[in-house]
Amino acid sequence: MTSTEQGRRKYDALADRYEEIYFYVADLGQELVSHAAPPPGARVLDVGAGRGAVARAALAAGCAVTAVDASAGMVARLAADHPELVVRQQDAGTLAFPGGSFDVVTAGFLVQVLTEPEAALAEFHRVLAPEGVVALSLERQTVGRLGWLHDLNREFFGAGTSDDPLSPDGLDELLTGAGFTAPARALVKVPKNVANPAALWDWLALQGVPEVLDTLPSQDAVAFRERFFRGAEDMHRNGGITLEFAATLHTATRP
Fold first, then answer.
1. How many domains, the chain?
2. Domain-embedded: residue 223
3. How do the pLDDT tens digits run along the chain, 255 residues long?
4. How does 24-46 read in b/e, with b if 16+ C-beta sit within 10 Å?
5. Does the keyword Transferase apply (predicted)?
């Protein structure tokens, strides 16, 4: 499978606030389309479209855009917000389009969350016309000055998954393995300044941190919150609070 029912439910729940939580997706959607450089009139398929960051940028570039997502909630919101798009609920690994239907396939921050990215890349290759371009963005893990928060999360909630994240080199290898040629990539950074510790807490609250704290013993939940605000205050006093985000943008060609 390329996406799980658990993943679909997660994104259904996030549909209303997705671009508030993931503040960088709009900027990176524009960057990904610019990196792919589709000509006006190009037939673009945006896979894992979410709330439409990449699809909106492709529309603005004069492209004819079809957007698909596995999440029913995302699809409903995207179709309502952008009636000018063709929007369908589909899984990345089983696209319901004939071969050679598109000139460009885009996928913003999708391949890293798929259980079988190879299946999705094979579908991207199939639905692209000869000389078509695939354009993907891949999240780069950055800690920077928020190391104290990562350490705090590990202490209270554990290290999380032991699986190694997909690397830029690994994605390029998957692209060539799927039959694409001429892989190229660029690094993009999108920092976001946060006004104060309370604003950082509010951003975490959008991601459900208070609900997760409710699963801890009450004394641990209180300790987490107290130490969070001490760490955030220290960061605020010493250079300000900045959320640091980076991504690699990947393109390759279907021969």
1. 1
2. no
3. 445 565 656 666 666 677 677 788 889 999 999 999 999 999 999 999 999 999 999 999 999 999 999 999 999 999 999 999 999 999 999 999 999 999 999 999 999 999 999 999 999 999 999 999 999 999 987 778 899 999 999 999 885 544 578 999 999 999 999 999 999 999 999 888 999 999 999 989 988 888 899 999 999 999 999 999 999 999 999 999 999 889 999 999 999
4. bbbbbbbbbbebbebeeebbbbb
5. yes
Q: Is residue 49 part of a domain?
A: yes
Is position 222 within any domain? Answer: no
- Specify the pTM: 0.87
Residues 2 and 111: beta-carbon distance below 8 Å? no
> Could you tell me the residue range of the domain that residue 32 belongs to?
5-141+162-191+249-253
Given a contact cutoff of 8 angstroms between Cβ atoms, the answer to whether 241 and 169 are in contact is no
Q: CATH number of the domain that 34 lies in? A: 3.40.50.150
Q: Tally Cβ neighbours within 10 Å of residue 59.
A: 19
Q: How many CB atoms lie within 10 A of CB 141?
A: 9
Q: Does residue 209 lie within any of the structural domains?
A: no
